[in-house]
Amino acid sequence: QQQVKQSPQSLIVQKGGISIINCAYENTAFDYFPWYQQFPGKGPALLIAIRPDVSEKKEGRFTISFNKSAKQFSLHIMDSQPGDSATYFCAASLVLYNQGGKLIFGQGTELSVKP
Amino acid sequence: EADIYQTPRYLVIGTGKKITLECSQTMGHDKMYWYQQDPGMELHLIHYSYGVNSTEKGDLSSESTVSRIRTEHFPLTLESARPSHTSQYLCASSDLTGANNEQFFGPGTRLTVL
To answer: Looking at the predicted structure, is the pLDDT value of residue A80 above 90?
Structure first.
């Protein structure tokens, strides 16, 4: 019940195209859903995050779509650029003190944007 | 500049050696975490801490141990390294009082045990 399932495992997109990565969760108590971006040799960095009280959040070219009833959320990267090539991780957590705010990560998606 | 640091970045060591991976943050965060990540794979939480003198085991069982004597420092120790410990180890921190749970990650230590 603590799992977060992410797909696809890898994704190749042409420059200017839309990249879409999907995640599904089981624990309905999760209340924080971030996406992290990781470049080779670096630690992950927060890209964008959403709480379950909204269905969409947009920051620049990055949008999270959230479907609470389906227990799914997705990352959309508009006008994908070669510099977006990285591994993307979705995650979920309980923002409760006694849970320690532990993040449960998805399996990761390796995105390659071709010029 | 507020940041989170890990040393060493790369470590190649023989079986049976004792190693300590260092992690320090200058953001004044109360919560700190250690994750284990195999190449191209998901992150698994192995240890976390709410603050000084607080340590907890994570979701993935690990033979490593941690300590939290100072707020800014959260070292991880392996008493006797084995080839099965070969992996990347990521340290992270977050603000205990934050409304969200943004975790800030260090660059990682890539450990190879021969």
So the answer is: yes
